[in-house]
Design brief:
Number of helices of chain B: 20
CATH superfamily of the largest domain in chain B: Aldehyde oxidase/xanthine dehydrogenase, molybdopterin binding domain
Shape of chain B: globular
CATH superfamily of the largest domain in chain A: Beta-grasp domain
Structural class of chain B: alpha+beta
CATH topology of the largest domain in chain B: Aldehyde Oxidoreductase, domain 4
Radius of gyration of chain A: 23 Å
CATH class of the largest domain in chain B: Alpha Beta
Distance between the termini of chain A: 53 Å
Strand content of chain B: 15-25%
Helix content of chain A: 25-40%
Strand order of the largest sheet of chain B: 3-5-1-13-10-11-12-21
Distance between the termini of chain B: 44 Å
CATH architecture of the largest domain in chain A: Roll
Strand content of chain A: 15-25%
CATH topology of the largest domain in chain A: Ubiquitin-like (UB roll)
Number of domains of chain A: 3
Helix content of chain B: 25-40%
Largest sheet of chain B: 8 strands, mixed
Number of strands of chain B: 28
Number of domains of chain B: 3
Oligomer: heterodimer
Largest sheet of chain A: 5 strands, mixed
Chain lengths: ~475, ~800
C-alpha cells in the first residue's frame, strides 16, 4: 500500500506521519496555505472551506467542504483546491475578481471560504449563468460578520460562465480520483465492505467516520480522540441507490448532497428537508448513514425518515439484520448498533404517502439546528385520513413517532376540526425541555401549530410560497 | 469651508475604491496574526486552564502533572510575573487570579511544543477551588445591589414637574440582551524576544498602544522595550479594544521566560467564554407626552451588566446615557446609570459602545406608547425630532438636525413608504396567520471619544527618493477600510496617483501613544494626522519647486539632493470639544452622524419566524471619503444590528446547578449570527447628499458605528407586525433579541389584546435612584493614565 498523499492545488503532498486526529484545515495551514481559516472548528462558519474533486456521474464535481471537520488522512488520494489554488493577487480567478470588485470583502477573514463556496457554484454543471441561476444556498454555510452579505450575494448573481479552457472546469469532465485503501497509525480506510467489516471486527473500539461532520466537532471542540478510526465514506457497496419491490435503498455512505441529487423529487418529503438541513458545506460531507448513527435527538433527517417508516440494514462480519428506524434509537445518542456493526443502507418503503410536509422551527432561517422538527406523511382517501405517520425531532431524548397524534388522525375526516383536535394531541407529544435554543413551552406550542400551519398553507388556501418567513 | 475639509479637484478621496487588501483577501494571501505561526520556527503554543466555577477561591494550583505531559514546556502562573499581575488599566483584572471570577477565567496557561501538548497539559494541571456565591443575572445583581464603578446622572429641567404636567404618562421596563462580537478571527497573539531583549508582539488588537502598555507593565518593562504590531484583524467590532491585552501579555511572558516565540490563539469556545461582549441593559422608565404626542419628560435608570471587572463599562454607560435622546427633543430629562457587577465575562466595547442600548430605550418607549397615544409611530417619531437651536440633555447644541429630517423625507419618498404602509394594512386585513409591519426609525450618533484626550492621532509619512510614498498611522485595519481611506487621503493631499502610496502595518514603534481604533473616529483622527504629515512634506516640496511645476518624481529627487526632509510626523487633535464627567455635561462630540431606515417585515403567526422583505436606508457620512467602503460599513453595521436585535441570543446558566454562570451559547452552533438568509430581499442604501462636514477631513463623517442602529427599524416593524395580530391600538412589548420564540409570545399576547407591561398613569414604578454618595463616572482614560503612570 503506497504512503498516503493528497494533491493540493496540483502538488502532491505527503500525509505520512500525520496524526489521525489532525484535521484537513490544520494540515493545509501547516503547508503554509493559510487562506483557509479556523472560525469555529465545527462546520458552522465556512471560513475553512476548500474544494474537493468528488464523483459525479462519469465525471467529477468540485465540492466545497469544511476542512476543519475532515481528518487529513481521509484526503488520501484526493484532489483539493484552496483559495490560493484558484488564483493569486496578480491573476485573480473570475470568482475572486468578481467578489473583490463589488466590495465583497471587508476584514477578509471569511473571504477565502466564500470564494471556495462560490467557485463550486461557478462550476456547478447545471447552473444557468446570471442572477436567477445563482443558488443562494451555495453560501448558506459561510458566515460573514462584516458585509451583511449583499455584495457577496451580488457577486454570486453576477457569476458568468467559466471559460471553455478553464482547467478546473475541464477537470470536472474526468472522473474523480478512485477510492484508495489507506492504512496509517490509528486510521484505516477499507477497500470494500468486507474489508470494512473485518477491520471493525478487529477493532471493535473503532470510531466509524464518513464525512466526520459530527465526530470532527467532538474532536475539535471537546478534544475527543479516537482509539482507531475507520473511514467508510468511499466504500463502494455503501454508495449505491437501488430501487426494488421493497422500496428505495440508499447506501449509508452517500453524502446528503449525493442523496439529494440521486432522488431529486422522487421523495417529496426529503426534497423539502434538504434546503433546511444544515448547509451545502455540511451536506457535502455528512452522510445519510452517519446522520442516523450519531442519533442526535434534533437531527432533521430522522423525523422525516420516521414519517416515511424507513428501515435500516445493519451489517457486521456476522451478517446483516434489518430494523425499523423507530426501533433504532434507544436513548440519548444511543442506538441498537452493536460494536463492529454499521449501517449499510436505508430503505424507504414505497409507495409513498401522497401528502407530506416537513416543518422545521429554528432561530435562524438557514443552517440552524432545529428547536423542533415535525415531518408528516398522510394518505387521505375520500376525505378520510387512512394513514398518518408523524416523526418528531427536538422534543425528547431521541427522535420519535407521534403515535397518539397519528391515532387521532386516522379514520377521521380530514378537516379543520380534525386538525384542531389532532393539534391538541400533538402539542402534548414528547417531553420537551428548556434549553438555549427554545423553551419547553415554545416547543410544545410549535408541535401544536405544525398541523395548523400546514392546514392553513396547503389545504385552506393561505399560501406560504416564496417570500414568506 | 475649513482647510481640513476642503477637497481639491480630482481628489482621490471620494472615489469608490475596493478595499486596499481585496486581492489579498480573495486569494487567501492576506495574513492575520495566527497565519504567522507557520512562518515562525520553534513557536510554542499556549493553552489556558479555565475555571469551571463562576466564583471560586483557588486553594491549590499544582502545575507539576502538566510538566509530565510529553511536549509541555512550561506552565505560566502568577509567580512568574516580573511586573504587575494585571491585564487591565484599572487594576481590577488580575492576569493570573487568586479568585476565579467567571466560568472560563484563565487561572494559568500551559505552553507546549504543539497545541495538542499544551491542551493535554492544561487538562493535567491540578486546581482546587473553594466555590463562592455568584451573581449571574442582571436581575440578581439589581436585587443584591451588586454594582461597580460610578453612578453618572444626566439631568436637565425638572422631570417631576414635566411628568406632572404631561397629558399622558407611562412607565415601563425595557430589557435588552448583550451581543457576542463573533469576529471571525478569534483573539491571537504571537510574541518573541529579539537579541537586545526587545519584546515584539504581533497581536490582533484595535489598541496597539494599550496592548504595549499592558505587556510592559506585566513584564515590568518600560514601554520602549515593547513593540506591538497589528497586520490586520479578522474583525474587531470593539471586542479587540481592551480584551487582547492580557492574551498578548501571556504570550510575551512566555516568550521572555522560554526564549522561544509563543503563539496564543483562542479557540472559538475559549473566545466566547473568556472575552467580554456587548453589555446587556435593564432600563426602568417614566415618560410624559403632551396631547400632540410631544415628549415632555423622561426619567430613566439604566443598569448595565458589566461582568466581573470594570473594563470599559463606565464609558459605555456614559455613551448610553448620552444617546437615550437619540434624535428627539425631550425638555425635562433625568437619566441615571449604574454598572452591575456580575460573575460573567467582563463586558466591553462593541460597535456603538452603549449608544445602541441607550437609543433602544427611547425607541422602545416610542414603539410601545404610540398605540396608547393613538398616534402612528412614523408620525410620533417625526414629530419629536430635534430642530435647530435645541441642545441635548448634556448641553451640546444639536447641529444640522435638518439632516435627520432630510434623510427621513428621502426615505419616505424613495422607499414609497406611505403607499406601502397602505399595502401592508391591506395584506394584514386579508391574512389571518401572516402579518406585515413597516417601520421607520432615525439615528443620531455622536462622534468623538467622550474622553477628550483620546481625540488625537499621529502619522508618519515617508517619501522615498524614487517618489514612492509609505504611510504609517496609528489606526488599525479590521475590515472597516481605514487603510483604504488613509491611502486616499495621502494621495489626495500629496496630489499623487494612488499607486504611489502604500500603507505599512500598524506598529507602536512607528507611531506612539495612539488611541484605540474605536468610536468610529479613526478616519477623522488618523486622516487628519496623515494629511498633516503630507502637508508638511508638500510645503517643503513647494519651496523646492518654486512654481516650476516639476513632475513628482523629479521634484522629489531634486528635494533629496537639496537636502530637504522628505518625511514627516503628522499630528491631529479634534478641536472644539470638551466634557466634564463629574457633571456629565459639555460638548463631547465633534458632530453627529445621522441616518434613517425603513424596514418591512412579515411575521408567521404560527411560529414567530420572520423575514425582512425590504429595507431602505439613507445615511449621512458627510462627503464620503470612499463610497464603496462607506456603503459596506452601512450595510454591515445594519446587519450586525439586526443580529443583535432579532437573532443573537446569549444565554447563561442561571440555575443553582453545578454549571451556574456557564455561557450555554458558547459556540457557533448555539449562538447564531445572521447568515445570508437574514439579508433583506431588497436592500436600498443611499448616502445623504450635500452633507459636507466642515472641520473634518475632506468634509467626511465617521461611519463605523452609527449604521448599526438603523436596525431599530426592523425591530419596530416586527413590533407592528405582532401588533397586527391583535385588536387596533395594541401596544406590544417585544423582548430583545426578538427571536422567533420572542415574537411568537408577543403575537400571543397581542392576540389577547394585552398592553404588555406599560403602566398608564403617574404612579407606576418609580425608577431606582442612584446613590448620591457614589463616585462620579470616571472615563476609561483617566484610569489609563493612572495605570500608565504606575507601570
Amino acid at each position: 500500500m503506497p504512503d498516503p498523499q493528497v494533491t493540493v492545488n496540483g502538488l502532491p503532498r505527503p500525509l505520512a506521519g500525520v496524526p489521525a486526529h489532525t484535521n484537513a484545515l490544520d494540515f493545509v495551514r501547516g503547508l503554509g496555505l493559510t487562506g483557509a481559516k479556523e472560525g469555529c472548528a465545527e462546520g458552522e462558519c465556512g471560513a475553512c472551506a476548500v474544494l474537493v474533486a468528488r464523483p459525479d456521474g462519469d465525471g467529477s464535481r468540485w465540492a466545497p467542504v469544511n476542512a476543519c471537520l475532515v481528518p487529513a488522512l481521509a484526503l488520501d488520494g484526493q484532489e483539493v483546491v484552496t483559495a490560493e489554488g484558484l488564483g493569486s493577487p496578480e491573476a485573480l480567478h473570475p470568482v475572486q475578481s468578481g467578489l473583490a470588485e463589488v466590495g465583497g470583502s471587508q476584514c477578509g477573514y471569511c473571504t477565502p471560504g466564500f470564494v471556495c463556496s462560490l467557485a463550486a457554484e461557478y462550476y456547478r454543471p447545471d447552473r444557468v449563468p446570471g442572477p436567477d441561476g445563482f443558488d443562494v444556498h451555495a453560501i448558506g454555510g459561510n458566515l460573514c460578520r462584516c458585509t451583511g452579505y449583499r455584495p457577496i450575494r451580488d457577486a454570486g448573481r453576477a457569476l458568468g460562465a467559466p471559460a471553455t479552457d478553464d482547467p478546473l472546469l475541464a477537470r470536472q469532465d474526468r472522473p474523480a480520483p478512485p477510492p484508495v485503501a489507506t492504512r496509517a497509525e490509528g486510521f484505516a480506510r477499507p477497500a470494500d465492505l468486507a474489508d470494512a467489516l473485518a477491520l471493525l471486527a478487529e477493532h471493535p473500539e473503532a470510531t466509524v467516520v464518513a464525512g466526520s461532520t459530527d465526530w470532527g466537532v467532538e474532536a475539535n471542540l471537546r478534544g475527543r480522540r479516537a482509539a482507531y478510526v475507520v473511514a467508510v465514506d468511499r466504500v463502494p457497496e455503501l454508495r449505491e441507490v437501488t430501487r426494488g419491490d421493497r422500496g428505495i435503498e440508499i447506501g449509508s455512505a452517500l453524502t446528503l448532497s449525493e442523496v439529494e441529487a440521486a432522488l431529486g423529487d422522487e421523495v417529496p418529503l426529503l426534497a423539502q428537508v434538504w434546503p433546511q438541513f444544515a448547509s451545502r458545506l455540511i451536506r457535502n460531507g455528512a452522510t445519510i448513514g452517519g446522520n442516523l448513527a450519531t442519533a442526535s435527538p434534533i437531527g432533521d433527517l430522522a423525523p422525516a425518515l420516521l414519517a416515511l417508516e424507513a428501515r435500516l440494514v445493519l451489517a457486521s462480519a456476522d451478517g446483516e439484520r434489518e430494523v425499523g428506524l423507530a426501533d433504532f434509537f434507544t436513548g440519548y445518542r444511543e442506538t441498537v448498533l452493536r460494536p463492529a456493526e454499521l449501517i449499510r443502507a436505508i430503505r424507504v418503503p414505497t409507495p409513498l404517502s401522497a401528502r407530506t410536509t416537513f416543518r422545521k422551527i429554528a432561530k435562524r432561517r438557514f443552517d440552524d439546528i432545529s428547536s423542533v422538527a415535525v415531518a408528516v406523511a398522510l394518505d387521505v382517501t375520500d376525505g378520510t385520513v387512512v394513514r398518518a405517520r408523524i416523526g418528531l425531532g427536538g422534543v425528547a431524548a431521541t427522535p420519535l413517532r407521534a403515535i397518539a397524534t397519528e391515532a387521532a388522525l386516522e379514520g377521521r375526516s380530514w378537516d379543520a376540526d380534525t386538525v384542531e383536535a389532532a393539534s391538541a394531541v400533538l402539542a402534548g407529544e414528547g417531553t420537551p425541555i428548556d434549553d438555549q435554543r427554545a423553551s419547553a413551552a415554545y416547543r410544545s406550542a410549535m408541535l401544536g401549530n405544525a398541523l395548523r400551519a400546514w392546514w392553513a398553507e396547503d389545504w385552506a388556501g393561505e399560501s406560504a410560497g416564496e417570500g414568506s418567513p | 469651508m475649513s482647510q481640513l475639509s476642503r477637497r481639491p479637484a480630482d481628489a482621490v478621496v471620494g472615489r469608490a475604491l475596493v478595499h486596499e487588501s481585496a486581492a489579498q483577501h480573495v486569494t487567501g494571501h492576506a495574513l492575520y496574526t495566527d497565519d504567522l505561526v507557520v512562518r515562525t520556527p520553534r513557536a510554542l503554543h499556549a493553552h489556558p486552564v479555565c475555571s469551571p466555577h463562576a466564583h471560586a477561591r483557588i486553594t491549590r494550583l499544582d502545575p507539576a502533572p502538566a510538566l509530565a505531559v510529553p511536549g509541555v514546556v512550561r506552565v505560566l502562573t502568577a509567580d512568574d510575573v516580573p511586573g504587575t499581575n494585571d491585564a487591565g488599566v484599572k487594576h481590577d483584572e488580575p492576569l493570573f487570579p487568586e479568585i476565579a471570577m467567571f466560568v472560563g477565567h484563565a487561572v494559568c496557561w500551559v505552553l507546549g511544543e504543539t497545541l495538542e501538548a499544551a491542551r493535554l497539559g492544561a487538562a493535567a494541571v491540578e486546581v482546587d477551588y473553594e466555590p463562592l456565591p455568584a451573581v449571574v443575572s442582571l436581575a440578581e445583581a439589581i436585587e443584591a445591589e451588586s454594582f461597580q464603578g460610578g453612578r453618572p446622572v444626566i439631568a436637565r429641567g425638572d422631570v417631576e414637574a414635566g411628568l406632572a404636567g404631561a397629558a399622558h404618562v407611562f412607565s415601563g421596563v425595557t430589557e435588552m440582551a448583550g451581543q457576542e462580537h463573533f469576529y471571525l478571527e478569534t483573539h491571537a497573539s504571537l510574541a518573541l524576544v529579539d537579541e537586545g531583549g526587545q519584546v515584539f508582539v504581533q497581536s490582533s488588537t484595535q489598541h496597539p498602544s494599550e496592548t504595549q502598555e499592558i505587556v510592559a507593565h506585566v513584564l515590568g518593562l518600560a514601554s520602549h522595550h515593547v513593540t506591538v504590531q497589528c497586520l490586520r484583524m479578522g474583525g474587531g467590532f470593539g471586542g479587540k479594544e481592551m480584551q487582547p491585552h492580557g492574551f498578548a501579555a501571556v504570550a510575551a511572558l512566555g516568550a521572555v521566560l522560554t526564549g522561544r516565540p509563543v503563539r496564543l490563539r483562542l479557540s472559538r469556545t475559549h473566545d466566547m467564554t473568556m472575552t467580554g461582549k456587548r453589555h446587556g441593559f435593564h432600563a426602568q422608565w417614566r415618560v410624559g407626552f403632551d396631547d400632540d404626542g410631544r415628549l415632555a419628560a423622561l426619567e430613566a435608570t439604566l443598569t448595565s451588566d458589566g461582568g466581573w471587572s470594570l473594563d470599559l463599562s463606565e464609558p459605555v454607560l456614559a455613551r448610553a446615557l448620552c444617546h437615550v435622546d437619540n434624535a428627539y427633543w425631550i425638555p425635562h430629562v433625568r437619566l441615571q446609570g449604574r454598572v452591575a457587577h456580575t460573575h460573567k465575562t467582563s463586558q466591553t466595547a462593541f460597535r456603538g459602545f452603549g449608544g445602541p442600548q441607550g437609543m433602544l430605550v427611547i425607541e422602545d418607549v416610542l414603539g410601545r406608547c404610540a398605540p396608547l397615544l393613538g398616534i402612528d409611530p412614523v408620525e410620533l417619531r417625526r414629530r419629536n425630532f430635534y430642530v435647530e437651536g435645541q441642545a441635548t440633555p448634556y448641553g451640546q447644541p444639536v447641529r444640522h438636525p435638518e439632516r435627520a429630517a432630510g434623510a427621513w423625507e428621502q426615505v419616505l419618498t424613495t422607499g414609497d413608504v406611505l403607499r406601502r404602509r397602505a399595502e401592508v394594512a391591506a395584506f394584514n386585513a386579508a391574512h389571518p396567520h401572516r402579518k406585515r409591519g413597516l417601520a421607520v426609525t432615525p439615528v443620531k450618533f455622536g462622534i468623538s471619544f467622550n474622553f477628550t484626550a483620546f481625540n488625537q492621532a499621529g502619522a508618519l509619512v515617508h517619501v522615498y527618493k524614487d517618489g514612492s510614498v509609505l504611510i504609517n498611522h496609528g489606526g488599525t485595519e479590521m475590515g472597516q477600510g481605514l487603510h483604504t481611506k488613509m491611502l486616499q487621503v495621502a494621495a489626495t493631499t500629496l496630489g499623487v496617483p494612488l499607486g504611489k502610496v502604500r500603507v505599512a502595518p500598524t506598529r507602536t514603534d512607528k507611531v506612539p501613544n495612539t488611541s484605540a481604533t474605536a468610536a468610529s473616529s479613526s478616519a477623522d483622527l488618523n486622516g487628519g494626522a496623515v494629511k498633516d504629515a503630507c502637508e508638511q512634506v508638500l510645503s517643503r516640496l513647494r519651496e523646492v519647486d518654486a512654481g516650476r511645476g516639476l513632475a513628482w518624481e523629479e521634484l522629489v529627487r531634486e528635494a533629496y539632493f537639496s537636502r530637504v526632509q522628505l518625511w514627516a510626523a503628522g499630528f491631529y487633535r479634534t478641536e472644539g470639544i470638551h466634557w466634564d464627567s463629574t457633571v456629565m455635561r459639555g460638548h463631547p462630540f465633534k458632530y453627529f452622524a445621522y441616518g434613517v431606515a425603513a424596514a418591512e417585515v412579515e411575521v408567521d403567526g404560527f411560529t414567530g419566524a420572520h423575514r425582512t422583505r425590504r429595507v431602505d436606508i439613507v445615511h449621512d457620512v458627510g462627503d464620503s471619503l470612499s463610497p464603496l467602503v462607506d456603503i459596506g460599513q452601512v450595510e454591515g453595521g445594519f446587519a450586525q444590528g439586526v443580529g443583535w436585535l432579532t437573532l443573537e441570543d446569549l444565554r447563561w446558566d442561571e440555575t443553582d446547578g453545578p454549571a451556574r454562570g456557564r455561557l450555554t451559547t458558547q459556540s457557533a452552533s448555539t449562538y447564531k449570527l445572521p447568515s445570508i438568509g437574514e439579508l433583506p430581499d431588497e436592500l436600498n442604501v443611499a448616502l445623504l447628499e450635500h452633507a459636507h462636514e466642515d472641520g473634518a477631513v475632506y468634509g467626511s463623517k465617521a461611519v463605523g458605528e452609527p449604521p448599526l442602529m438603523l436596525a431599530f427599524a426592523v425591530r419596530e416593524a416586527l413590533r407592528e407586525a405582532a401588533a397586527a395580530f391583535g385588536p387596533e391600538g395594541t401596544s406590544v412589548e417585544l423582548a430583545s433579541p426578538a427571536t422567533p420564540e420572542a415574537i411568537f409570545w408577543a403575537v400571543e399576547r397581542a392576540r389577547r389584546g394585552g398592553a404588555g407591561h406599560v403602566v398608564e398613569g403617574l404612579p407606576g414604578a418609580v425608577p431606582d435612584r442612584p446613590d448620591p454618595a457614589a463616585p462620579a463616572l470616571h472615563p476609561r482614560s483617566e484610569q489609563a493614565a493612572q495605570a500608565a503612570g504606575e507601570a
